[in-house]
Amino acid sequence: MADQVEKVVIIGSGPAGLTACIYAARAALQPLCFEGYNAGGLIPGGQLMFTTEVENYPGFPDGVDGPKMMKAFRKQAERFGTRLITQDVYEVDFRNRPFTIKSDDHTVRAHAVIVATGARANWLGLPNEKRLAESGGGVSACAVCDGALPAFRNQDLVVVGGGDSAIEEGSYLTKFARKVYLVHRRDQLRASKAMQERFFKLVEHGKMEPVWNATIVDVLGEQTISGVRLKDVRTGEQRDLPCRGLFLAIGHTPNTELFKGVLDTDDKGYLKLPNPPGTRTNVEGVFAAGDVADHVYRQAVTAAGTGCMAAIDAERWLAGRGIE
Ligand code: NAP
Protein backbone atom coordinates (compact mmCIF):
# COMPACT_ATOMS: atom_id res chain seq x y z
CA MET A 1 0.00 0.00 0.00
CA ALA A 2 3.00 2.27 0.57
CA ASP A 3 3.63 3.38 -3.02
CA GLN A 4 0.11 3.54 -4.20
CA VAL A 5 -2.10 6.58 -3.67
CA GLU A 6 -5.52 5.61 -2.35
CA LYS A 7 -8.52 7.35 -3.85
CA VAL A 8 -10.21 7.65 -0.49
CA VAL A 9 -9.26 6.76 3.06
CA ILE A 10 -11.90 6.65 5.76
CA ILE A 11 -10.91 7.14 9.38
CA GLY A 12 -13.39 5.61 11.81
CA SER A 13 -15.74 2.66 11.71
CA GLY A 14 -18.93 3.69 13.47
CA PRO A 15 -22.16 4.05 11.48
CA ALA A 16 -20.76 7.13 9.69
CA GLY A 17 -17.42 5.60 8.70
CA LEU A 18 -18.80 2.25 7.59
CA THR A 19 -21.67 3.81 5.64
CA ALA A 20 -19.10 6.00 3.88
CA CYS A 21 -17.18 2.78 3.13
CA ILE A 22 -20.26 1.09 1.64
CA TYR A 23 -21.04 4.03 -0.62
CA ALA A 24 -17.41 4.65 -1.62
CA ALA A 25 -16.90 0.95 -2.35
CA ARG A 26 -20.02 0.78 -4.48
CA ALA A 27 -18.75 3.84 -6.37
CA ALA A 28 -15.63 1.77 -7.21
CA LEU A 29 -13.32 3.95 -5.11
CA GLN A 30 -11.81 0.89 -3.34
CA PRO A 31 -11.86 2.61 0.05
CA LEU A 32 -9.36 1.88 2.76
CA CYS A 33 -10.68 2.26 6.29
CA PHE A 34 -8.74 2.67 9.50
CA GLU A 35 -11.27 1.19 11.88
CA GLY A 36 -9.35 1.95 15.05
CA TYR A 37 -8.18 -0.23 17.86
CA ASN A 38 -9.79 1.42 20.85
CA ALA A 39 -6.55 2.89 22.10
CA GLY A 40 -6.72 6.54 21.15
CA GLY A 41 -10.44 7.00 21.61
CA LEU A 42 -11.21 5.56 18.17
CA ILE A 43 -13.38 2.53 18.85
CA PRO A 44 -13.88 -0.09 16.14
CA GLY A 45 -17.62 0.02 15.54
CA GLY A 46 -17.97 3.32 17.38
CA GLN A 47 -20.13 4.10 20.37
CA LEU A 48 -22.75 1.50 19.46
CA MET A 49 -20.29 -1.10 20.70
CA PHE A 50 -21.25 0.12 24.18
CA THR A 51 -24.96 -0.06 23.55
CA THR A 52 -27.03 -3.06 24.40
CA GLU A 53 -30.10 -2.84 22.28
CA VAL A 54 -30.78 -0.36 19.48
CA GLU A 55 -34.50 0.06 19.07
CA ASN A 56 -34.62 3.26 17.03
CA TYR A 57 -32.64 2.30 13.94
CA PRO A 58 -35.15 1.96 11.10
CA GLY A 59 -35.48 -1.49 9.64
CA PHE A 60 -35.19 -3.40 12.91
CA PRO A 61 -38.74 -3.63 14.28
CA ASP A 62 -37.64 -5.94 17.09
CA GLY A 63 -34.51 -3.96 17.94
CA VAL A 64 -30.95 -5.03 17.33
CA ASP A 65 -27.94 -5.55 19.52
CA GLY A 66 -25.50 -2.58 19.00
CA PRO A 67 -22.33 -4.64 18.41
CA LYS A 68 -24.28 -7.05 16.18
CA MET A 69 -25.51 -4.17 14.07
CA MET A 70 -21.99 -2.81 13.66
CA LYS A 71 -20.77 -6.26 12.63
CA ALA A 72 -23.41 -6.23 9.90
CA PHE A 73 -22.33 -2.72 8.76
CA ARG A 74 -18.73 -3.96 8.61
CA LYS A 75 -19.63 -7.09 6.67
CA GLN A 76 -21.58 -5.01 4.16
CA ALA A 77 -18.62 -2.62 3.74
CA GLU A 78 -16.27 -5.57 3.16
CA ARG A 79 -18.68 -7.22 0.74
CA PHE A 80 -18.17 -4.35 -1.71
CA GLY A 81 -14.41 -4.34 -1.37
CA THR A 82 -13.57 -2.08 1.58
CA ARG A 83 -10.19 -2.89 3.08
CA LEU A 84 -10.00 -2.47 6.84
CA ILE A 85 -6.99 -1.77 8.99
CA THR A 86 -7.60 -2.46 12.68
CA GLN A 87 -5.29 0.23 13.99
CA ASP A 88 -5.58 3.75 15.32
CA VAL A 89 -4.36 6.56 13.13
CA TYR A 90 -1.80 8.52 15.12
CA GLU A 91 -0.74 11.15 12.57
CA VAL A 92 -2.12 12.79 9.45
CA ASP A 93 -0.61 15.26 7.01
CA PHE A 94 -3.37 17.22 5.29
CA ARG A 95 -1.06 20.08 4.32
CA ASN A 96 0.68 18.27 1.46
CA ARG A 97 -0.99 16.35 -1.37
CA PRO A 98 -1.56 13.51 -1.61
CA PHE A 99 -2.47 13.39 2.07
CA THR A 100 -0.60 11.05 4.41
CA ILE A 101 -2.23 8.95 7.11
CA LYS A 102 -0.12 6.96 9.56
CA SER A 103 -0.87 4.13 11.93
CA ASP A 104 1.58 1.84 13.76
CA ASP A 105 2.27 -0.41 10.77
CA HIS A 106 0.94 1.57 7.84
CA THR A 107 1.75 4.82 6.09
CA VAL A 108 -0.89 5.49 3.48
CA ARG A 109 -1.24 8.26 0.92
CA ALA A 110 -4.67 9.36 -0.27
CA HIS A 111 -6.29 11.89 -2.60
CA ALA A 112 -9.36 12.24 -0.36
CA VAL A 113 -10.09 11.49 3.29
CA ILE A 114 -13.35 11.08 5.16
CA VAL A 115 -13.01 11.78 8.86
CA ALA A 116 -15.55 9.81 10.89
CA THR A 117 -13.77 9.51 14.20
CA GLY A 118 -16.90 10.23 16.27
CA ALA A 119 -17.17 11.61 19.75
CA ARG A 120 -16.84 9.84 23.02
CA ALA A 121 -19.25 10.32 25.88
CA ASN A 122 -17.59 11.59 28.99
CA TRP A 123 -17.66 9.19 31.90
CA LEU A 124 -17.30 9.81 35.58
CA GLY A 125 -14.33 7.44 35.68
CA LEU A 126 -15.61 5.10 38.38
CA PRO A 127 -14.62 1.40 38.09
CA ASN A 128 -18.16 0.07 38.67
CA GLU A 129 -19.60 2.54 36.19
CA LYS A 130 -17.72 1.06 33.19
CA ARG A 131 -18.27 -2.51 34.39
CA LEU A 132 -22.04 -2.10 34.64
CA ALA A 133 -22.16 -0.23 31.32
CA GLU A 134 -20.28 -2.93 29.42
CA SER A 135 -22.32 -5.76 30.94
CA GLY A 136 -25.64 -4.06 30.17
CA GLY A 137 -26.23 -3.72 33.90
CA GLY A 138 -28.09 -0.42 33.71
CA VAL A 139 -25.43 2.26 33.16
CA SER A 140 -25.68 4.11 29.87
CA ALA A 141 -24.44 7.26 28.20
CA CYS A 142 -27.42 7.46 25.85
CA ALA A 143 -30.98 7.68 27.10
CA VAL A 144 -32.39 7.82 23.58
CA CYS A 145 -30.61 4.52 22.80
CA ASP A 146 -31.36 2.62 26.00
CA GLY A 147 -34.09 4.43 27.92
CA ALA A 148 -37.02 2.51 26.48
CA LEU A 149 -35.64 -0.90 27.45
CA PRO A 150 -38.07 -2.95 29.57
CA ALA A 151 -35.62 -3.03 32.51
CA PHE A 152 -36.09 0.71 33.06
CA ARG A 153 -39.88 0.81 32.89
CA ASN A 154 -41.54 2.10 36.03
CA GLN A 155 -38.22 2.29 37.82
CA ASP A 156 -36.32 5.05 39.56
CA LEU A 157 -33.53 6.32 37.33
CA VAL A 158 -30.68 8.77 37.80
CA VAL A 159 -29.30 11.23 35.28
CA VAL A 160 -26.07 12.99 36.09
CA GLY A 161 -25.25 16.41 34.65
CA GLY A 162 -26.77 19.87 34.58
CA GLY A 163 -26.62 20.82 30.89
CA ASP A 164 -29.10 20.59 28.03
CA SER A 165 -28.29 16.93 27.50
CA ALA A 166 -29.07 16.03 31.10
CA ILE A 167 -32.47 17.73 30.91
CA GLU A 168 -33.22 16.32 27.48
CA GLU A 169 -32.23 12.78 28.48
CA GLY A 170 -34.00 13.10 31.82
CA SER A 171 -37.23 14.35 30.30
CA TYR A 172 -37.08 11.58 27.69
CA LEU A 173 -36.69 9.02 30.46
CA THR A 174 -39.77 10.29 32.29
CA LYS A 175 -41.84 8.61 29.57
CA PHE A 176 -40.84 5.26 30.99
CA ALA A 177 -39.53 5.76 34.49
CA ARG A 178 -41.37 6.06 37.78
CA LYS A 179 -39.16 9.00 38.67
CA VAL A 180 -35.94 10.49 37.29
CA TYR A 181 -33.46 12.05 39.72
CA LEU A 182 -31.16 14.68 38.27
CA VAL A 183 -27.88 14.64 40.16
CA HIS A 184 -25.89 17.82 39.61
CA ARG A 185 -22.68 18.97 41.24
CA ARG A 186 -23.91 22.53 41.70
CA ASP A 187 -27.22 24.10 42.66
CA GLN A 188 -27.65 25.86 39.33
CA LEU A 189 -28.22 24.32 35.96
CA ARG A 190 -25.99 25.02 32.99
CA ALA A 191 -28.90 24.19 30.65
CA SER A 192 -30.60 26.83 28.50
CA LYS A 193 -33.59 28.73 29.84
CA ALA A 194 -36.07 26.78 27.76
CA MET A 195 -34.66 23.48 28.98
CA GLN A 196 -34.70 24.69 32.58
CA GLU A 197 -38.36 25.54 32.20
CA ARG A 198 -39.02 22.07 30.90
CA PHE A 199 -37.15 20.60 33.84
CA PHE A 200 -38.95 22.57 36.54
CA LYS A 201 -42.32 21.69 35.00
CA LEU A 202 -41.43 18.01 35.28
CA VAL A 203 -40.32 18.58 38.87
CA GLU A 204 -43.69 20.21 39.57
CA HIS A 205 -45.43 17.13 38.21
CA GLY A 206 -43.31 14.81 40.32
CA LYS A 207 -41.68 13.19 37.27
CA MET A 208 -38.20 14.54 38.02
CA GLU A 209 -36.41 15.53 41.18
CA PRO A 210 -33.17 17.48 41.52
CA VAL A 211 -30.37 16.35 43.77
CA TRP A 212 -28.25 19.49 44.06
CA ASN A 213 -24.62 19.84 45.09
CA ALA A 214 -23.95 16.15 44.76
CA THR A 215 -21.41 14.03 42.96
CA ILE A 216 -21.60 10.30 42.37
CA VAL A 217 -18.71 8.55 44.05
CA ASP A 218 -19.71 4.93 43.38
CA VAL A 219 -22.17 2.85 41.40
CA LEU A 220 -23.71 0.04 43.42
CA GLY A 221 -24.82 -3.44 42.34
CA GLU A 222 -23.26 -6.67 41.07
CA GLN A 223 -25.09 -7.82 37.89
CA THR A 224 -27.41 -4.84 37.68
CA ILE A 225 -27.23 -1.42 39.23
CA SER A 226 -29.05 -1.07 42.55
CA GLY A 227 -28.15 2.53 43.34
CA VAL A 228 -25.56 5.27 43.37
CA ARG A 229 -23.48 6.56 46.27
CA LEU A 230 -23.73 10.33 46.49
CA LYS A 231 -21.43 12.78 48.14
CA ASP A 232 -22.62 16.22 49.18
CA VAL A 233 -19.99 18.60 47.84
CA ARG A 234 -20.51 21.08 50.71
CA THR A 235 -20.48 18.73 53.70
CA GLY A 236 -18.70 15.68 52.30
CA GLU A 237 -21.53 13.55 53.67
CA GLN A 238 -22.34 10.38 51.73
CA ARG A 239 -25.63 8.61 51.17
CA ASP A 240 -27.00 5.94 48.84
CA LEU A 241 -29.77 6.66 46.35
CA PRO A 242 -31.46 3.47 45.09
CA CYS A 243 -32.05 3.36 41.33
CA ARG A 244 -32.30 0.88 38.48
CA GLY A 245 -30.49 2.96 35.87
CA LEU A 246 -27.77 5.58 35.66
CA PHE A 247 -27.56 7.82 32.59
CA LEU A 248 -24.49 9.95 32.03
CA ALA A 249 -25.00 13.35 30.49
CA ILE A 250 -21.81 15.14 31.39
CA GLY A 251 -20.85 16.07 27.85
CA HIS A 252 -19.07 14.48 24.92
CA THR A 253 -15.55 14.90 23.62
CA PRO A 254 -15.13 14.81 19.84
CA ASN A 255 -12.19 12.74 18.63
CA THR A 256 -10.48 15.59 16.82
CA GLU A 257 -7.13 15.77 18.62
CA LEU A 258 -5.48 14.27 15.53
CA PHE A 259 -6.53 17.19 13.33
CA LYS A 260 -5.70 20.06 15.66
CA GLY A 261 -4.44 23.13 13.84
CA VAL A 262 -5.35 21.73 10.42
CA LEU A 263 -9.10 21.18 10.41
CA ASP A 264 -11.22 24.00 11.77
CA THR A 265 -13.16 23.19 14.91
CA ASP A 266 -15.76 25.05 16.95
CA ASP A 267 -15.12 26.10 20.53
CA LYS A 268 -16.03 22.60 21.76
CA GLY A 269 -13.65 20.85 19.38
CA TYR A 270 -16.22 19.59 16.84
CA LEU A 271 -15.18 19.82 13.18
CA LYS A 272 -16.68 22.78 11.36
CA LEU A 273 -18.33 22.21 8.00
CA PRO A 274 -18.27 25.50 6.09
CA ASN A 275 -21.03 24.56 3.60
CA PRO A 276 -23.72 22.54 5.36
CA PRO A 277 -25.37 20.25 4.47
CA GLY A 278 -22.22 19.53 2.40
CA THR A 279 -19.63 17.51 4.31
CA ARG A 280 -16.43 19.16 3.18
CA THR A 281 -14.14 20.64 5.80
CA ASN A 282 -11.88 23.68 5.41
CA VAL A 283 -9.29 21.47 3.69
CA GLU A 284 -10.21 20.59 0.12
CA GLY A 285 -10.50 16.84 -0.27
CA VAL A 286 -11.13 16.21 3.43
CA PHE A 287 -14.72 15.45 4.39
CA ALA A 288 -16.33 14.77 7.76
CA ALA A 289 -19.24 12.60 8.79
CA GLY A 290 -21.02 11.60 11.97
CA ASP A 291 -20.64 12.79 15.54
CA VAL A 292 -17.19 14.29 14.97
CA ALA A 293 -18.99 17.17 13.28
CA ASP A 294 -22.35 16.95 15.05
CA HIS A 295 -23.05 17.78 18.67
CA VAL A 296 -26.76 18.22 18.09
CA TYR A 297 -28.32 14.99 16.78
CA ARG A 298 -25.71 12.31 17.59
CA GLN A 299 -27.82 9.37 16.41
CA ALA A 300 -26.67 6.25 14.57
CA VAL A 301 -29.08 6.96 11.77
CA THR A 302 -27.96 10.58 11.32
CA ALA A 303 -24.32 9.47 11.43
CA ALA A 304 -25.00 6.86 8.74
CA GLY A 305 -26.78 9.53 6.68
CA THR A 306 -23.84 11.91 6.78
CA GLY A 307 -21.47 9.01 6.04
CA CYS A 308 -23.39 8.44 2.82
CA MET A 309 -23.25 12.18 2.06
CA ALA A 310 -19.49 12.34 2.66
CA ALA A 311 -18.85 9.42 0.30
CA ILE A 312 -20.94 11.06 -2.42
CA ASP A 313 -19.20 14.41 -1.82
CA ALA A 314 -15.78 12.70 -1.99
CA GLU A 315 -16.70 10.82 -5.15
CA ARG A 316 -17.82 14.03 -6.88
CA TRP A 317 -14.76 15.90 -5.70
CA LEU A 318 -12.47 13.17 -7.02
CA ALA A 319 -14.38 13.00 -10.31
CA GLY A 320 -14.00 16.77 -10.66
CA ARG A 321 -10.25 16.22 -10.57
CA GLY A 322 -10.29 13.34 -12.99
CA ILE A 323 -9.62 10.73 -10.28
CA GLU A 324 -12.21 8.01 -10.80
P1 NAP B 1 -22.55 20.61 28.76
O1 NAP B 1 -23.38 21.78 28.40
O2 NAP B 1 -21.08 20.72 28.69
O3 NAP B 1 -22.98 20.17 30.24
C1 NAP B 1 -22.31 19.17 30.90
C2 NAP B 1 -22.86 19.11 32.32
O4 NAP B 1 -22.22 18.03 32.99
C3 NAP B 1 -22.60 20.37 33.13
O5 NAP B 1 -23.73 20.67 33.90
C4 NAP B 1 -21.43 19.99 34.01
O6 NAP B 1 -21.46 20.59 35.29
C5 NAP B 1 -21.62 18.51 34.18
N1 NAP B 1 -20.36 17.80 34.36
C6 NAP B 1 -19.28 17.83 33.55
N2 NAP B 1 -18.32 17.02 34.03
C7 NAP B 1 -18.82 16.46 35.16
C8 NAP B 1 -18.31 15.53 36.09
N3 NAP B 1 -17.10 15.00 35.96
N4 NAP B 1 -19.09 15.20 37.15
C9 NAP B 1 -20.33 15.71 37.28
N5 NAP B 1 -20.88 16.59 36.44
C10 NAP B 1 -20.12 16.95 35.36
O7 NAP B 1 -22.88 19.31 27.86
P2 NAP B 1 -24.26 18.89 27.18
O8 NAP B 1 -25.38 19.04 28.11
O9 NAP B 1 -23.99 17.53 26.59
O10 NAP B 1 -24.42 19.92 26.00
C11 NAP B 1 -23.40 20.05 25.00
C12 NAP B 1 -23.85 21.04 23.94
O11 NAP B 1 -24.92 20.48 23.19
C13 NAP B 1 -24.35 22.34 24.54
O12 NAP B 1 -23.99 23.39 23.69
C14 NAP B 1 -25.83 22.17 24.55
O13 NAP B 1 -26.54 23.39 24.50
C15 NAP B 1 -26.05 21.32 23.28
N6 NAP B 1 -27.27 20.52 23.42
C16 NAP B 1 -28.45 21.09 23.06
C17 NAP B 1 -29.62 20.38 23.20
C18 NAP B 1 -30.90 21.02 22.80
O14 NAP B 1 -30.94 22.20 22.62
N7 NAP B 1 -31.95 20.29 22.62
C19 NAP B 1 -29.62 19.11 23.74
C20 NAP B 1 -28.40 18.55 24.13
C21 NAP B 1 -27.23 19.28 23.96
P3 NAP B 1 -21.20 22.17 35.47
O15 NAP B 1 -22.45 22.83 35.01
O16 NAP B 1 -20.96 22.31 36.94
O17 NAP B 1 -20.01 22.48 34.64
Core attributes:
324 residues; alpha/beta; FAD/NAD(P)-binding domain; 2 domains; seven-stranded mixed β-sheet; five-stranded parallel β-sheet; 7 helices; 19 strands; elongated; binds NADP nicotinamide-adenine-dinucleotide phosphate
Gap from first CA to last CA:
18 Å
Number of β-strand runs: 19
- The assigned CATH architecture of the largest domain is 3-Layer(bba) Sandwich
How large is the share of residues in beta strands? 25-35%
Bound molecules: NADP nicotinamide-adenine-dinucleotide phosphate
Quote the CATH topology of the largest domain.
Answer: FAD/NAD(P)-binding domain
Give the low-pLDDT segments. Answer: none
Please tell me the overall pLDDT: 93
Helix tally equals 7
CATH class bucket of the largest domain: Alpha Beta
Give structural notes:
This protein is of the alpha/beta class and 324 residues long. The protein has two domains: 5-120 and 252-320, 3-Layer(bba) Sandwich (FAD/NAD(P)-binding domain), CATH 3.50.50.60; 123-248, FAD/NAD(P)-binding domain. Helix content is 25%, strand content 26%. It has helices at residues 15-26, 66-79, 127-134, 143-146, 164-173, 193-204, 300-320; strands spanning 5-11, 32-34, 53-54, 64-65, 83-85, 89-93, 99-103, 107-115, 119-121, 139-140, 156-160, 179-183, 208-211, 214-220, 227-232, 238-242, 245-248, 252-254, 286-288. The strands form five sheets. Strands 1, 2, 5, 6, 7, 8 and 19 form a seven-stranded mixed β-sheet that branches. A five-stranded parallel β-sheet has the order 10-17-11-12-13. The longest helix has 21 residues, at 300-320. It is elongated and about 65 Å long. The model has no long low-confidence stretch (mean pLDDT 93). It binds NADP nicotinamide-adenine-dinucleotide phosphate. NADP nicotinamide-adenine-dinucleotide phosphate is lined by residues 124, 160-166, 168, 185-186, 190, 192, 215, 249-251, 295.
